[in-house]
């Protein structure tokens, strides 16, 4: 059996997180993201159901990964410590789909005790629904995939200008 590279413990980002039990070299497989394989229809149904409950309780919203155009993986079902990996705007891991399996790989050298994190890659469409608490230097305050962060920053800057103008009236 392969050496377990992680442990679950309290996180400053969001409740619990996954932390390195030892040094992890860049490019290493860290953990497989597991769960129940479900149809897209079932995935949408579960996501909407959980979203309402999660907001009330302040929990993670959805633990669903896309496998392909027909199937998703529900990481909330079964034993899946990978679900505790939090988002960071400057993550040290990435999720990779390898032949229908989701694997978390390190994208930089990780020191013992570091929290494991990756960019969740959310679309900006509903960015206000996904506040970010990663605390990284490049954090814009919302979980949005990297290629859309500049657009969201512009939206926020324009909104702030509008509020300042209204407050001066």
Main features:
169 residues; alpha+beta; Beta-clip-like; 3-stranded antiparallel beta sheet; 2 helices; 25% strand; globular
- The CATH superfamily bears the name SET domain
> Fraction of residues in helices?
10-25%
Helix-strand topology string: EEEEHEEEEEEH
What composes the largest sheet? Answer: 3 strands, antiparallel
Distance between the termini: 67 Å
Mean pLDDT: 89
The gyration radius over C-alpha positions equals 17 Å
Write the CATH architecture name: Beta Complex
CATH fold name: Beta-clip-like
Please list the strands of the largest sheet in the order they lie side by side: 3-9-8
Top-tier CATH class? Mainly Beta
In terms of DSSP E residues, the strand content is 15-25%
Number of strands: 10
Q: Tell me the count of domains.
A: 1
What does this entry show, briefly?
The chain is α+β, with helices and mostly antiparallel strands. It is 22% helix and 25% strand. It has one domain: Beta Complex (Beta-clip-like), CATH 2.170.270.
Please explain how this structure is put together.
By secondary structure, the chain is of the alpha+beta class. The chain has one domain (6-34, 79-168): SET domain (Beta-clip-like, Beta Complex). It is 22% helix and 25% strand. The chain contains two helices and ten strands. The chain has helices spanning 40-57, 149-168, and strands at residues 6-10, 16-20, 29-33, 36-39, 64-66, 71-74, 86-87, 93-98, 101-106, 117-118. It has a three-stranded antiparallel β-sheet, with no helix packed on it. It has a three-stranded antiparallel β-sheet with strand order 4-6-5, with helices on one face. A hairpin with a 2-residue loop joins strand 8 and strand 9. It is globular and about 65 Å long. 25% of the residues are buried.
């Amino acid at each position: 059996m392969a050496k377990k590279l992680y442990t679950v413990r309290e996180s400053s980002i969001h409740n619990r997180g996954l932390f390195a039990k030892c040094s992890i070299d860049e490019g290493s497989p860290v953990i497989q993201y597991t769960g129940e394989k479900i149809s897209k229809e079932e995935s949408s149904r579960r996501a909407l159901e959980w979203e309402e409950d999660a907001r009330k309780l302040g929990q993670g919203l959805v633990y669903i990964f896309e496998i392909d155009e027909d199937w998703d993986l529900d990481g909330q079902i079964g034993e899946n410590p990978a679900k505790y990996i939090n988002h960071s705007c400057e993550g040290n891991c990435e999720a990779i789909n390898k032949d229908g399996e989701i694997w978390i790989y390190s994208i930089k050298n990780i020191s013992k005790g570091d929290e494991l994190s990756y960019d969740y890659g959310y679309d900006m469409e509903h960015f206000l629904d996904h506040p970010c608490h990663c605390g990284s230097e490049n954090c814009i305050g919302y979980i949005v995939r990297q290629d859309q962060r500049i657009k969201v920053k512009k939206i926020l800057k324009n909104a702030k200008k509008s509020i300042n103008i209204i407050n001066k009236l």
